[in-house]
Write a structure and sequence with these properties.
Elements (H helix, E strand, L loop, with lengths): L1 H57 L1
Keywords: Membrane, Transmembrane, Transmembrane helix
Length: about 60
Amino acid sequence: MDKLKKNIDQLVAGKVLNDIHKIVNEEDKKEIQEKHWSVIISVLIGVAVVVIVVLTILG
């Protein structure tokens, strides 16, 4: 009986650890996506500034 309880405890602990890993991985993915978007936005702003400066010089 003790052995069965020990096995169940190990299974539960394993499941909890697995869930924690999944949550951490999801958070990492979100962070990477947010960084990805911030880089894209920065590049777009940079391009817009360059276009405005060039148009100002040419205009």
